[in-house]
Structure formats: structure tokens, C-alpha cells
Amino acid sequence: MSNSVQEKQVQSTEVHLTKGDRYATWWRSTFLQAAWNYERMQNVGWAYAMVPTIKRLYKTKEDRTAALKRHLEFFNTHPYVASPILGVEMAMEEQKANGAAIDDEAINSVKVGMMGPLAGVGDPIWWGTVRPVLGAFAAGLAQSGQILGPIIFFLVWNVMRMAFLWYTQELGYREGTNITQNLGGGMMQKLTTGASILGMFIMGVLVPRWTTMNFPMVLSKVHLQKGSYVDTDTLAKQINSGHLSPQTITDIAGKIKDGQNLGAIKITTVQDTLNQLIPGLAPLILMFIVLWLLRKNVSPIVIIFGLFAVGILAYAFGIMA
Amino acid sequence: MISAFFVVLISFLAGMDGILDEFQFQQPIVAATLIGLANGHVTEGIILGGTLQMLALGWMNIGAAVAPDAALASVVSAYLVTGPAQVSVYEGMAIAVPLAIAGQVLTIGVRTLTVVLAHVADRQAEKGSLRGVDAVNMAALTLQGLRIAIPTIIVIAVGAGPVNAALNAIPDVITKGLAVAGGFIVVVGYAMVINMMATPELWPFFFLGFALSAVTELNLIAMGIIGLVLALVYLQLSPRFNGGNDGGGSTGGTSSGSSGDQIDAILNNY
């Protein structure tokens, strides 16, 4: 009992960040990358996000200068996972301002120590899984002209993002430097692996589904025996002469149901043969060629231009349509 | 005139988000829809946005690497498709690619120029000026917005005539060929995403998705559910993640054990 009373007395002389400060930091963290530059990358944006903290904790010009300077050091990570780091740094600054022996080195090394591993989690989850999966789902709707596509994409993304920024920042602020242990543990790895499984699975789904490759080249023309095909000629003759018998209709309907060829000549294209193996085989092979090129460090833009050229040539020579 | 104003406003938003990567105004599905809305051809904008989105699926800025720029590509291409020029969606898609490179070059330029601003921020810090640092951050953001807004204004000023004349000069074989390429160019986006994530552990899930998708008619929501179930089951069964619970795992440590329990607790509550 007496302990908590004592704590309260100590607290009254200490400076603390208010919830308003934390909200302000949360909103400002949106602009982390605004002044992204090749020298110190996200450094200005980071200092910008730390401004409410510095404003609350330090009142003299000297203190503010020192604080701003230590937060203008090099910093770069995935923009969303900067939030837990911001939370931790807010907690550290708070302790420092209240007299704890935390030097600039410690504040900087926590930042630098967290940014690498966290970027390794943020990039595959946000850019590698959530955006492609959500984007592909929304694009599927959008390609048929439905406004729901863009609306779902925008709302779902931003609700997830804003909630993530706020809760991870609060987590970092609460846990302080303990968070490094938590994030290093199994939970982050579980999350990354789980997200990657979903991502890879959906990529597998997309490859055959929204890729259109049609090879209309004719491989063979076979004249079929009478009776083993849908006799469209006879049908046309009977219709035109006005002698269409119910028997013919039943015959033809049955044959169509059985999947027989329309007309006496069965045309097999390259595409038919590929589809018999498995639909989507050509896109799959093309995907692996592109993947191989990417691993050879060919720029994606070069590959895109190359594929445009392939499309034009393949169309010109009648290989694809 | 009013629609041109909104187009420029959207281009400015897209330019800012091109560097921030937060609200996703730079993503084609959002930008093209908004530009379509401003021009009164919202459906064309949505369709173009969806088409370009598949192309840009794998365009991501990782570390210091700069990806092709979705902002300039989607804004200008959407203006040409939904604006007075009335370019077709496939032509819009083909135009988007060189625009993405131009945007990439421009953002690299602005990111270099911002080094100067970072030094201005240093001087503001010397003075202890919090407002000064705020101003520098926002000035840099404005530059990134102008990076897309200025080219957009130029395209609006040039107008539909020259654009259409240039496009009409292109032979039929090329436009039809571009449409053919448009059908499979999305593969590059898939490959970029896969290139980032693929490990031997994960390839089986890719092939499972491929086979299911090639021979069934299951829609994407069903596929998403299957993918989620696979991920959850895998995490429960994989020895790599179960080792932590009895304290003897290779990932070890008490903290990983307890956080593992948290996830298990969430799963058990279902």
C-alpha cells in the first residue's frame, strides 16, 4: 500500500506522455517516409514522428536539440513495423527524461537493432502477402467493372493498417525494450510462415486463373466417321428446308451432351493439347521462366518489355491470339 | 475544367502516397477508379485499375530499392483512358509500363534531392526547432506530390489530339499483339511476389493452389479459406513451432514458449 502511494508521489514530479501524444505520434507515423532520402533514408520522417514526444518531455532548447539530433540518425525499415519501434523509443525517452541513465548510444542501438529483423517480417507480410492477395481479389471484382473492388481494397487495407500502427505502437510503448525478446521469439516466425503459406497458395491459384494464353495453331484435322460427331450439316439442311424432325433434335442434344465434336472435321489446336495435360500449363511455365530471369537479376521492367515484344511477335506469326 | 482540377488533385495524392505507401492512393485500383470518377467514366477507370493492379502486384519498395512507379503509371494511363483521349484499356496498359519507369526515375531524383532537405532538417535541429523539422518533412512530401502532378498537368495541356494521332499511327499488329501480351504479362507480378517469398518449405503450397485452381471452379473466397486453413494446420503440426511449447525447441527461450501459448489460446477459443 505504502509502496503505491510512494509511486504516485514520484509520478507527480515525472513527465509522462499522454494518450494525446501517442495519438499524435500514431498519425505522424503515417508520414514516416515523406522525406525519404538516399543519405539517411527515413531519418527526417522518424524525427517528425518523435516530435510530440520531444515536445512533451523536453522543454529547453539544448534538450530539444540533443533529442532531435539523436533521432535524425540513419533509419530505414518497413514503414508499418516502425510503429512498435516508435513505441519502444517513446518509452525509452520517457525514462531518460525522468532521470534514467540511458545514453544516446542505447537509444540509437535499440532503433537500429530492431529495424532489420522487423523489416524482415513487415515486407513479406504486408507487401508480399496482404497487398497481393487483397489486390488480386479486388482486381478480380474490378475487372468486371464492379466498384466494390476498389472500395473493398481501400477500406480493408486502411482499417488493417491503421489498427496495426496503433496497437503495435502501444505494445512497444507498454513493453519497452522487453518487446525485442517477444518479437524475436516464436510468434513473429509463426506469423510470417503462416502468411507466406497463404501467399504462396494464392499465387498458385492466380497463375492459371487470370492469365490468358491461347495457342490457336492447328495441330491436326481429322475427318470423323459418320455417327461419331454432331452432324451440323444435316441439321442446317433440315432447318433450312423446314423438315426438322424431333428425332434429329434428340439425337443432336444427346451427342452434344456426350461431348462429341461439332461438325465432321475435328480440329485439334496446340491449346487443346495443353488443356488435356492440365489447364494453365503455359502460364505456369512462363511464370518459372520469369522467376528464373528475376533470380538472374534481370529487371522486372526489362522482362515486361520483353514479354510485350513476345506478344507482338507471337501474334504476328499466328502462334498466339 | 473541374474534372481537370480533380485529376490534378488525385495525381498529387497519388504522388505523395507513392513515397509514403500508407493509404494506397498510388495503387492502380484506387488511383484509376478516382481518375475515372473525376472524368465521369468510372467503369472504365475501375476496369483499367483492376487490369493494372494485376500488373503491379509485385511492385514493392524493399529496403532502399525503388520499384517501378505505380503512381505515374496509373494516374496518366487512367487519364488517357477515361479522359478526352478515350484510349482503349489495352493501350492504356501498354502506355502504363514506360510511365512506370519514368515515375521510377523521377522518384529517384526526388529522393536524391531530399538529401539537401535532410541537411536543412539538421540545421533546424541545431536551433531546437520542432516546427522546422515538421516543415522539412512536409516540404519533401510536397515535392513527391508534384512529381506526379506536374507530368499530369503537362499531359492534360497536350490534350487528346496528339495522343490519339500518335496511337493511330501504331500498326494493327502491334496493338493486337499488345492485347495478347496483356493477357499474360501479369505473370511478372506473380513471379515477383513468389521470388520474394519462396522457400523449399513453401513450394508445395504453391503447387497445391495451382492444381486446385486449374481443375476446379472454386472462387477466390473459397480458395482464401482453404489457404488459411492450410496455414493454421501447418503451424499446429509443424515440429518447428511445437518445439517451443515444451521448452526444448530450437527456437527455445521462455518468451517464445509463452507467446506460442498465446496463439494456441486464440486458436483454442475458436
Automatic annotation (TrEMBL), chain A:
A Pfam entry, by short name: EIID-AGA
Q: What membrane topology term does the record carry? A: Multi-pass membrane protein
Q: Where does the UniProt annotation locate this protein? A: Cell membrane
Query: Which chain regions cross the lipid bilayer?
Result: 187-207, 274-294, 300-320
In its keyword annotation, does this UniProt entry include Cell membrane? yes
Annotated Gene Ontology cellular components are: plasma membrane
- Mind listing the UniProt keywords for this protein, alphabetically? Cell membrane, Membrane, Phosphotransferase system, Sugar transport, Transmembrane, Transmembrane helix, Transport
- Primary location: membrane
Q: Which GO terms describe its biological process?
A: phosphoenolpyruvate-dependent sugar phosphotransferase system
Return the protein name: PTS mannose/fructose/sorbose transporter family subunit IID
Recite the lineage of the species: Bacteria, Bacillati, Bacillota, Bacilli, Lactobacillales
From TrEMBL, chain B:
Q: According to its UniProt record, what is one Pfam family this protein matches?
A: EII-Sor
Q: How does it sit in the membrane?
A: Multi-pass membrane protein
Q: Extract one GO cellular component term from the record.
A: plasma membrane
Where does this protein reside within or beyond the cell? Cell membrane
**Where do the TM regions start and end?**
55-81, 93-118, 138-161, 173-193, 205-235
Q: Which PROSITE patterns match?
A: PTS_EIIC_TYPE_4
Q: Does the keyword Nuclease apply?
A: no
Gene Ontology biological process terms from the UniProt entry? phosphoenolpyruvate-dependent sugar phosphotransferase system
What's in the keyword line of the UniProt record?
A: Cell membrane, Membrane, Phosphotransferase system, Sugar transport, Transmembrane, Transmembrane helix, Transport
Name by which UniProt lists this protein: PTS mannose/fructose/sorbose transporter subunit IIC
Species for this entry: Weissella viridescens (Lactobacillus viridescens)
